[in-house]
Amino acid sequence: DGGITQSPKYLFRKEGQNVTLSCEQNLNHDAMYWYRQDPGQGLRLIYYSQIVNDFQKGDIAEGYSVSREKKESFPLTVTSAQKNPTAFYLCASSIVQGDSQFFGPGTRLTVL
Amino acid sequence: SQKIEQNSEALNIQEGKTATLTCNYTNYSPAYLQWYRQDPGRGPVFLLLIRENEKEKRKERLKVTFDTTLKQSLFHITASQPADSATYLCADTGGFKTIFGAGTRLFVKA
Q1: Is B93 in contact with A101 (Cβ distance < 8 A)?
Q2: B6, B33, B49, B93: which to substitute to probe chain A, counting the most A Cβ within 10 Å?
Q3: CA dihedral angle for residue A101, residue A3, residue A37, residue A63, rounded to 10 degrees
Q4: Radius of gyration of chain A (CA)
Q5: CB-based contacts of B53, cutoff 8 Å, min separation 6
Q6: Chain B residues near residue A45 by CB distance under 8 angstroms
Q7: Which residues contact B40 (CB under 8 A, 6 or more apart)?
């Protein structure tokens, strides 16, 4: 089965700690994306990658970092510099930039 | 700035009726718009894509229109069912950065 997975589903961290959210896809898609969703709000783009070893900042990249060393993997690190990290994080992929996006199940991050 | 706006008020309709959701864009002209469905606590699921040179696109009970004069896309669900209850998101993914609307919550009553 092809798809996109995110782990873990729920994540708790203490203030001041960095945490890495996993995103893996076996759809052979070139483009991958990270979004943040807050209650009652739409998805906001954090980072996106059009191809391996390349990524670009989205609208709210401050306090986040990513890497794209493999086509199938696009991990997101939430650093201690992110002032309000509690949110629902969604990873997505598409065949190429601009195509319809396939989303993972999301990771809900709570900072204690 | 470029914006995608959707009606933030929930839409309540009776089963069997047609649901119509609105997506307005401002300060630019997207090359195409996409519609997604999102259930609580889950990732969005792609439904339909419509290009600016297409007036209408259909898929089973779903229909999307794109009016470049009104700067608006309408999303219709005909013969609605309680299982159609969800949040529907409009998105412009044609540029370098994707822009999503906040979504409209649809409730279909049996």
Answers
A1: yes
A2: B93
A3: -100
A4: 13
A5: none
A6: 97-99
A7: B87
User: How many contacts (CB atoms, under 8 Å) link A and B?
Assistant: 57
pLDDT tens figures, A31-77: 999 999 998 788 999 999 999 999 999 999 999 999 999 999 999 99
Q: Long-range CB contacts (< 8 A, 24+ apart) of A42-45? A: A42/B4, A42/B6, A42/B89, A42/B100, A42/B101, A42/B102, A42/B103, A43/A90, A43/B44, A43/B89, A43/B91, A43/B98, A43/B100, A44/B100, A45/B97, A45/B98, A45/B99
Tell me: the pLDDT tens digits for B60-88? 999 999 998 888 999 999 999 999 999 99
SS3 B27: coil
CB-CB under 8 Å, B100 with A98: no
Residues in A touching B46 (Cβ below 8 Å): 100-102
Tokens 């990873």 correspond to A91
